[in-house]
Amino acid sequence: MRVDVWSDVVCPWCWIGKRRFERGLALLGDGAPPVELRWHPYLLDPDAGTDPVPLREAYAAKFGGPERTAQVLASTQAAARAEGLPMDFDRGQVRVTTLPAHRLLWLAAREGDAGRVGEALFHAHFAEGRNLADPEVLVAAGEAGGLPGGRVRTLLAGNEGAAEVRAAVARAQAMGIHAVPTFVIDGRFAVQGAQAPDLFAQALRQAAGEAGPGDGAAGAGADCGPGGCRV
């Protein structure tokens, strides 16, 4: 069974949603179908550049001040830690473009393990406060997914993969994907947001022809609220 996932590596609910999907798949036990995950890019903040801006500062401008920002980050961090994820918004995260990270994921899908690279990028940003536009951070994430460091540096030194990533983002927009994470199971069942594991399990059962929810879509994200990150 193929599962397509649209995600951005600076979307906290994308990391939470990934973990909840994994838990939902585990709920199926021995009856779980073989799953092929395919990761697709989305630029949650397409105007971000390579110069780092403190994340709390950027969020304060977006959410209407530091107090509201603190509330949003605290609730998101609590949800992540409930899933066993070491999210820590006191590590000095910065706002930067994620285009280089998506180019790395594009390469990993062809020459390495995109799942491991994605997990390394999530961890670097949310648990360690690393700058995802820093080439050395990207090299380390690439190596976590089996890519030689030299190959990653060659990628980052040029424009390889940039056109493909931008085209993929445009296709997602044309498909009507405007919130991340979005999971499409077997090309038929869409689940938006970091839904509960049992909902993912129901959608997987339905896609496999078993009992499940009555419709083909579930949930909708809010702007980095409890369902996901709206773009």
UniProtKB/TrEMBL annotation:
<protein>
    <submittedName>
        <fullName>DsbA family oxidoreductase</fullName>
    </submittedName>
</protein>
<dbReference type="InterPro" id="IPR001853">
    <property type="entry name" value="DSBA-like_thioredoxin_dom"/>
</dbReference>
<dbReference type="InterPro" id="IPR036249">
    <property type="entry name" value="Thioredoxin-like_sf"/>
</dbReference>
<dbReference type="Pfam" id="PF01323">
    <property type="entry name" value="DSBA"/>
</dbReference>
<feature type="domain" description="DSBA-like thioredoxin">
    <location>
        <begin position="2"/>
        <end position="204"/>
    </location>
</feature>
<feature type="region of interest" description="Disordered">
    <location>
        <begin position="211"/>
        <end position="231"/>
    </location>
</feature>
<dbReference type="GO" id="GO:0016491">
    <property type="term" value="F:oxidoreductase activity"/>
</dbReference>
